[in-house]
Amino acid sequence: MSTRQDIDFEGILLVDKPQGITSHDVVDRMRRKLRMKKIGHAGTLDPLATGLLIMLVGKATKVSQFLISLDKAYEGTFLLGVETDSQDADGEVVAEKPLPEGLTEDQVIEEMTNFLGDQYQTPPMFSAKKIDGVPLYKMARKGKTVEREPRFIRINELKLDNWESPVGKFFMDCSKGTYVRTVVHDLGQRLGCGAHLQSLRRTRIDQFDISQSLTLEQINEVPLGEFQNHLIPVREAVPTHVL
Amino acid sequence: MMERVFDSIVQFGSRWEQDVCLAVGMFDGVHRGHRSVLDLALEEASSFSGSGVALTFPLHPASFLRPGKEPPLLMPAMDKAESLLSTGMDAVILQPFDQLLSRLEAEQFLPFLTEHIPSLKTITVGENFRFGKNRKGDSAMLEEMGLGHGLKVKVAPSLVLDDSPVSSSRIRLALSEGNIKEVNQMLGRPYLISGQVISGKALGRTLGFPTLNLQWNPQARPAFGVYAGMVKEKTTGVQFPAVANYGVRPTVEQKVELPLWEIHCLEQPDVSIWQEGAHLALEVRSFLRPEMKFENVDELSTQISKDCAAAIRLFPQLL
């Protein structure tokens, strides 16, 4: 018989991250729950965002490079006319402008189609990306701006699902490394009135769908002895050549 | 595939351990001329049991230097990476052309590469390769500089077809004119479009020609019109001859929409075998006619029947 401490879990766990906590907070909770240190996640979600987070448990951390690089889909809302320093609702308002007169749903959709395809995106000042070892958000809080190199991204799909001026509900499918709030910010710039990201939910990462995920409450209720049943074996989650 | 595609020279250099022969170029289209540069790299790499690696940009440098003036690309970056890997390259580096690179003088180019890729042994480029600030460096200068840096530089001569060199810009022109035959000759393989099936308005089905719809819009668009080709499901490899319309559907659409590929399988009229979201690729073999606006749906329908017949007649010689 093994003691509880001896259980070495291994696999991929799909979690529905709640709003208000960091992706790393989820890692911490999982570490406490599973009494293991070797747990990571594949792709940060901002505190404001909810939805699919891929957790890597045990030896599964080895395939993080592969899982990080997958395309992702999001649902979210943007608010036109209000710009914030962090480009989302967590930031300070830096500008408020009226919407262009008579702005129609079709005009918003047309502007959105300009974002489709391959492009460079400059990461926002408020981001976890590091320059010379210092996260950008730490510099941003001190009021510093640094030159950021544009990164290559791809937007496969960007749809307006609902429009109730000045709020738009959208769906976006994009490559890794795409800052959704920056896309929203840039959309605001193109429309001339500014915009920020109000809410965001990640619904899919390649083949993994939010419907397969567990909430933190559901995870808490799983007895440790049954936990392995909720983990996707690594060999089922990634192509064989990655292993 | 993704784990062999790197985001930058720095990222590649920190993870790759084998000796490297680097093929450098934009490689848009991965045409026959590019392949002689790539083959040269693979040949060199195998001579020292190293890796053949392609260093390229995801977007044209001009889109950074002169936004709005860049040539439209034949391939989205990931398609290009996939195509480069399928030629046998061991890895692909999609290096964004950024501030740093734009300021790099020609003289700093090789030191920059060797600093970030310590295992670099050989470089191959095409005859018309230019590098460094203001495109000051050329292939002859690179060969000379290689000697000073202990690097071997191999230059592949341009490939000539019908009296002029094969180039991405020549392919773009032929593509915009619907000259698929010439496009395919220069590519050395059929022009390929790929994407996921999206839901349509099922208009084709009411006309008796159900279609699979793909939204695939590279910067360099093919001529709007009707094409014949082979459609293939990527995971299973199942394929059928097909006719496909690329365009904005002037007969049935009121407002201008993004161009769409509507693919009608000739031997498999039941399109439900491939669901929304299925990954399809279409090898384009022949251009049948330009897109037209018809007076009514009946006329359109009659024309589609003729297109199908024309495609069926063509296939024995195409396949």
What's the structural blueprint in terms of helices and strands?
The complex is a heterodimer of chains A (243) and B (319).
Chain A (H helix, E strand, L loop, with lengths): L10 E7 L5 H12 L4 E3 L8 E8 L6 H5 L3 E9 L1 E3 L8 E4 L8 H9 L3 E5 L8 E2 L2 E2 H6 L9 E14 L2 E8 L5 H12 L3 E11 L2 E2 L4 E2 H6 L12 H4 L6
Chain B lengths: L4 E2 L2 H7 L4 E5 L7 H16 L3 E6 L5 H4 L11 H10 L4 E4 L4 H5 L5 H8 L3 E7 L3 E2 L5 E2 H10 L3 E5 L3 E2 L2 E2 L2 H9 L3 H8 L3 E8 L4 H5 L4 E3 L10 E9 L5 E9 L12 E6 L13 E12 L6 H22 L1
Parallel strand pairs in B: 1-4, 2-3, 2-5, 3-4, 5-8
Antiparallel strand pairs in B: 6-7, 9-10, 11-12, 11-16, 12-15, 13-14, 13-16, 14-15
Helix pairs in contact in B: 8-9
Give a quick rundown of the structure:
The complex is a heterodimer of chains A (243) and B (319). By secondary structure, chain A is of the alpha+beta class.
CATH C-level class of the largest domain in chain B:
Alpha Beta
Q: What's the CATH superfamily of the largest domain in chain B, by name?
A: HUPs
Number of strands of chain B: 16
Mind telling me the CATH class of the largest domain in chain A? Alpha Beta
CATH names the topology of the largest domain in chain A as Pseudouridine synthase
List low-pLDDT spans of chain A: none
Give the percentage of residues in beta strands of chain A. 25-35%
Q: What this model shows, in words?
A:
The complex is a heterodimer of chains A (243) and B (319). Helices cover 22% and strands 33% of the residues of chain A. Chain A is an alpha+beta fold. Chain A has 2 domains: 102 residues, Alpha-Beta Plaits (2-Layer Sandwich), CATH 3.30.70; 134 residues, 2-Layer Sandwich (Pseudouridine synthase). In chain A, strands 1, 2, 3, 4, 7, 10, 11, 12, 13 and 14 form a 10-stranded mixed beta sheet that branches. Chain A has a two-stranded antiparallel sheet with strand order 5-6. In chain A, strands 8-9 form a two-stranded antiparallel sheet. The two termini of chain A are 31 Å apart. Chain B has 319 residues and is of the alpha/beta class. Chain B has 2 domains: 163 residues, HUPs (Rossmann fold, 3-Layer(aba) Sandwich), CATH 3.40.50; 129 residues, Riboflavin kinase-like (Elongation Factor Tu (Ef-tu), domain 3), CATH 2.40.30. Helices cover 33% and strands 26% of the residues of chain B. Chain B contains 11 helices and 16 strands. In chain B, the strands form 4 sheets. Chain B has a 6-stranded parallel beta sheet, with helices on both faces. Chain B has a 6-stranded antiparallel β-barrel with strand order 11-12-15-14-13-16. A two-stranded antiparallel sheet of chain B has the order 6-7. The longest helix of chain B has 22 residues. Chain B starts with a strand and ends with a helix. The interface between A and B is medium-sized, with 19 and 20 residues.
